[in-house]
Structures are given as C-alpha cells and as structure tokens.
Amino acid sequence: MIKMIVTDLDETLLKTDKTISQYTIDIIKKVRNQGIKFIFATARGSSTRNLIPYELFDGYVLMNGAKAYIDNRLIYDKTIPANIFIPFLQNLSDNGLKVAAEINDMHYANFNVKEKWNYIDNFIITDYRGVAGSADKLYGIIESPYQIDLINSILPDELYLNFSRDSLAMIMHKEGKKINGVLEIARKFNISKNYIIAFGDDINDREMLLNCGVSVAMGNSIEDIKDITDYICDINDNDGVAKWLEENILG
C-alpha cells in the first residue's frame, strides 16, 4: 500500500558526479504511472534545478526542510529571522569560523564560497551588518573539533545543529526539518506516513528515515544510517534507488 516515495538527492538519487541516469528517470516515471507520488528532500536550494528535471516530481523539500513545495507552490516555510541569525553568525565569525546564511538563493558569507563549491556563483562576502530577510539555512565549515562546541554553546533556542559527512555544519529553524516538509506534502495528498518509503544516506536524513513507513539506506550510507533502516540498497553510483524500486515496487 505504498502511496509516496521520498528520496534524498546527493549520494542517494544522484550519482557522485551529480548526474541522474536515464534508467533512474525511467523508473521514476513508471512508479508515478502507478499512481504513487514521488518527491525529493534535499539540503540544497536553487542549485537543485541545475541537476534534475523538476517535472519528474510531485513535490520537493529544500534547505533541509526550511521550505516545501507542491507544483512549485510553497506550502511550508520555516526560515530564520535576521534578528536571530545575524548576531549568531557575527559571533561565530569573530571566533574564526567560516559561516554563511542562504537567503533567497543568495549566499551571504564571510569567505569565498566558490572556493569550497565551484558551482556557486551567487554569493556576497559580508560582515552581516545590513543583511535583511529571513535565512533559509545557515551553515559553517568545521575545521577543528572545538568549533562544534563553540556553535553549540551559543546556538539560539530557536535553532538546531546538524552535520554532514563533508564537515559541513547546517543550522536550521527547529521546525525546519526534512521530515516536517515531507509530512506536510503527504498531508496535502492525504497520505499517512505509514505509506511512505524514504531513501537516504546521511545524518540529516535520520529523522525522515525513522518516521516513514519503510526506510532504505544507500549502500554508500554512513554506518549510523544503515543501522536504523529496514533495508539497504545498492550504492548511488549503481542506481541503488531505482534498482530497489524496480525489484520491490514495480516487480
């Protein structure tokens, strides 16, 4: 009785080179032809549009859960007000951390973002004075263990800290989580979480995997994720998501 599938993108649906295979595209279309909704949930923002065709999906969750959409219509918004994130980032910056706020697809950072991610051109180097608007997400580059303790020691009550395997600290609104965006999309489609299959590979997929009816870890997942899921599929570079769906849903 599966009614919806949600998948992470990087190291999950996408290959390591950030491409999606024609085989995977064909499987997604076949799954949707059976009346099953197909969505993605990612830490990415607008850069996602450069990687996948949005018309393949019934909905999507961006910025680790800060925003969720159906048919390109915003249905869930949990962003971080400027009066909360500006003093927080200024404090971290004063203590030597490389940090940034992403606002409407613009990265406001105290470092050259392009040196870390060469595909990002839309950034402004700033000390955060005069930055306006709510941030979709905040992030920092962790270069030493003490920086984690520093972030936690001054983290505002409204925010939470998450990590990815590439030493990236992501700071979000407490209600801005992948699972919240996924469940809001499911609610709009009148689908219970028990009828959702979730695919993921990293720490920021944990709650999503734990709170859907069926959870599948990638073969390339970190061990902590493999330990909590119902199934483990092939690695992302071998079209693990599509293979699992073909064998278990279409088969």
Number of domains: 2
CATH level 1 class label of the largest domain:
Alpha Beta
CATH topology term of the largest domain: Rossmann fold
Strand content: 15-25%
Q: Mind telling me which CATH architecture of the largest domain this is?
A: 3-Layer(aba) Sandwich
In one word, what is the shape?
Answer: globular
- Find the count of extended strands (DSSP E, 2+ residues): 14
In round numbers, the mean pLDDT is 94
Strand order of the largest sheet: 5-4-3-2-1-12-13-14
Rounded to an integer in angstroms, the radius of gyration calculated over CA atoms is 18 Å
Give the H and E element order: EHHEEEEHEEHEEHEEHEHEHEH
CA distance, first residue to last residue: 14 Å
Structural class: alpha/beta
Largest sheet: 8 strands, mixed
CATH superfamily placement of the largest domain: HAD superfamily/HAD-like
Question: Which runs of at least 5 residues are low in confidence (pLDDT < 50)?
Answer: none
How many helices? The count is: 9
Helix content: 25-40%
GO cellular component, one term: cytosol
Protein name: HAD family hydrolase
Keywords: Hydrolase
GO molecular function, one term: phosphatase activity
